[in-house]
Amino acid sequence: MTLDIKLDWISAVIQAMVIGLLAYRRFYKKLPLFFSYLVWLLIVLVANVALSPSVLQKIFVIAEIVDAAFMFCVLVELSMSVLSPIRSALPSWTVYGVAGIIAVAFGLIWPFAKPPGFNTLEPLSKMEIHVDMAISVLPIVFFLALAACSQWLSLSWRDRELQIGTGLGIFALATLCVTLLKMNVGTASTDAIRTYHRLDQAQAASYIAAMLYWLVSFAQKVPERRDFTPQMENFLLALAGNARSARVAMRDSSDFRKK
Asked: pTM surpassing 0.90?
């Protein structure tokens, strides 16, 4: 058994343990999209071992798009979970506002998610690298924002939201670094191909590290979620109120023009 297959199976076993632990704790009721995302990743891992390279190549782009869509939805779900202490006071459209903010962040990242030598790639490789980099930067930005605002959001490293964000950030950062290094190494020589392959193995190892972090973190008891600081709570409620006032004003203005 090659090292690549061993890494895939180790990843699959650890991820299955994480999924089993979350299922046992009924975590899927709180964050169903994140739980579904882990199941999806497990299916991809098993397919990577079971299917032939030719079949994997045909479905790779579709899998990348599904993965990107899953990641977007997971970040929206995590954001809403972070807002849970004041969620009852927020308007019903808050989830769409959060999705819009994350979509804008992705849109800002997209034009710059092009490593050196990007224009020399084949169209299919361009799409793969572009999506890979953009969707890798997004959870890193999300984690940094969450960690930076953790004091105001009353989040600690024992809170699930920050633990999930940390795991996503670890693997996303590793994926981003590996992608950039691959573009510099290339495959022009035997040594380059060997280095390229080792980078793939390093990426698999980082995935195992993220899964182990989640396994240890999710095995611990979750503390009761604390309320936001008064300053942050007032800021978020005022932000939601201003957005609602602006929406009502736009609607009234539209109705007036129709008359």
From this structure: no
Q: For residue 211, give every residue at least 6 positions away whose Cβ sits within 8 Å of its Cβ, in sequence order, or none.
A: 11, 14, 15, 18, 167
Residue 179: left if φ>0, alpha if ψ -120 to 50, beta else—which one?
Answer: alpha
* Residue 64, amino acid: E
SS3 state at 30: coil
For residue 59 the two structure tokens come to: 């479905």
d(CA 68, CA 71): 5
Can you say whether residue 31 is alpha, beta or left, with left for phi > 0 and alpha for psi between -120 and 50 degrees?
beta
Chunked mean pLDDT (size 10), the chain, 259 residues: 81 93 89 93 84 72 85 93 79 87 92 78 77 87 87 80 90 86 71 81 90 91 69 67 50 49
Q: Do the Cβ atoms of 250 and 52 come closer than 8 Å?
A: no
Q: Residues near 186 by Cβ (< 8 Å), separated by ≥ 6?
A: 117, 192, 196
